[in-house]
Design a protein that fits this description.
about 230 residues, about 75% helix, about 0% strand, cell membrane, MetI-like_sf, cell inner membrane, transmembrane helix, MetI-like
Length: about 230
């Protein structure tokens, strides 16, 4: 049997992981959706088109780089001696490394391509006729985005949100590098499982892994259902 203290130690990382996934997904919804819309808009200016290609390449870097590499450079960037961390330190603002806020920044960067790609693809699928009619009926770009583009891309937005949420739940390398393992603050479930295995506490590791597998199956089923809807003509 697993005692209550160990059960509490097991539940806390799940709560941190779910909270991190929710905050990360919400941030991506608010900030990455307009970016995906801008990237998907056709452009006649070659310089802007090349800029978009470059930005797409930068966004896709987490797909090819090891998580520890991204986590390492984020650790340097957020540390008090250089980059953003130095600026925060000079202005008497608490550093972001080994904090939940730092985890959110790392998760947003690492999950960005997993959200951008399906949303970008869905914006590309908006018929040209719909865009032309929207230009005629609605002069405001913001209203066209809110009333026309977002409803047309809702399937991609849902799919991107589900993929990003599931991806954040399973993060390990990035969150370990910039968050460490502070109980109740930065210790996510993947780190907790690693620590249980290191301590040879396989019973707890099995239980936590089993819960993650169940969550993963549910998320995969949801993603597959939404993906099937997105492929309908």
């Amino acid at each position: 049997m697993i005692d209550q203290s160990l059960m509490s130690d097991m539940l806390s990382p799940f709560w941190v992981s779910i909270k991190l996934a929710c905050v990360t997904t919400l941030c991506l919804l608010l900030f990455a959706t307009p970016i995906a819309y801008w990237l998907a808009k056709p452009n006649r200016i070659k310089a802007i088109g090349r800029l978009k290609v470059l930005l797409m390449g930068i966004i896709a870097m987490p797909l090819v780089l090891p998580p520890t590499v991204i986590g390492f450079y984020l650790l340097l960037l957020l540390s008090p001696s250089v980059g953003i961390g130095k600026w925060l330190s000079e202005h008497n603002i608490s550093p972001l490394i080994f904090t939940f806020e730092g985890l959110v920044i790392g998760s947003i960067i690492y999950s960005l391509p997993f959200y951008i790609q399906p949303v970008y693809a869905q914006f590309l699928r908006i018929p040209q006729s719909v865009t032309e009619v929207a230009h005629l009926l609605e002069p405001s770009r913001m209203r066209r985005f809110m009333k026309v583009a977002l409803p047309q891309a809702r399937v991609g937005i849902i799919l991107g949100s589900l993929v990003s949420f599931a991806h954040t739940i399973g993060e390990f390398g990035v969150v370990l590098m910039i968050g460490g393992s502070i109980s109740g603050e930065t210790k996510v479930v993947s780190i907790a499982i690693y620590e249980q295995v290191e301590a040879l506490n396989y019973e707890a590791a099995h239980m936590m892994s089993g819960i993650l597998i169940i969550m993963g199956v549910v998320m995969v089923a949801l993603i597959a259902s939404v993906s099937r809807i997105s492929q309908r003509p």
